[in-house]
Amino acid sequence: MLVLFILISIGFLCGKKGIINDNAAKKMTDIVLYVVTPCVMISAFQKEFSADTLISVLIAAAAALIILVLSTVIARLIIRDKDISRKKVLQFSVIFSNCGFMSLPLQKELLGEQGWFYGSIFVAVFNIFVWTYGLFDMSGDKKQLSIKKLVFNPGIMGAVVAIILFVCRITLPDIISQPVTHLANLNTPVPMLIIGYYLSNAKFKDAFTDKGSYLALALRLIAIPLAVTFAMAALGLDKTMIIAFVIACSAPTAATTTMFAAKFNRDVELSVGVVASSTILSIITMPLIVSLAWTVIF
Question: d(Cα 56, Cα 41) in Å, to the nearest integer?
């Protein structure tokens, strides 16, 4: 986490000094979404096919879906606000974590290739869920659900290609696998610089003074990851999978919250505040939650 924090700090300084601006941040985000994320998926799934591995994939995918569904139930039951715009943003911020940008680098550093593998499965399920339920809930309009958007989502396309290669037992030749690996490795530094840049423009006073966000932050950063830890441990699931999923669930609120809030005229300032404050607080909460999970599991 300290390494990630240093990278975020560099992005923060680059934002303050004007080295990174809005246009650069958007382009960097596009690179991560459309190039780096698919490469992460493909690289993670370049494993030897076996029935046991396939079963692990199915179990992990089912567990990720259950976690997201239960997070949705918790958010809808607990987060209440008379202002529908605020309520939608707060509920979304509880359900969807920054499981790609913040989690995958940490999963790889802590757990190696196997942790990265499970993290990629979580991200794949997350992408499907956020572009279906998340899109519908934030917009309130069923017409926003588009098969085209779902099919051509880069995260989903990357997952589909990765799974096809895995199931068909196709190993990429070095001339292709090496560039894929190099691009996948960008998933640690580039997203951290982007997060740092957006934090450099955040209004921290507003982020930490909105009382309505406190409950959402507690659920996002503490309650849900703790519940995932003890539930998965009680079920006796794979230890590496548990830690990988706890990392994904303890990550701060997804930046997608602000993107969707802006697109569908929800409370954009609140979304920026929650994303910024959860990112700052996660520097403290993520190590504590993951350390606790590690103690419980091992």
Answer: 16
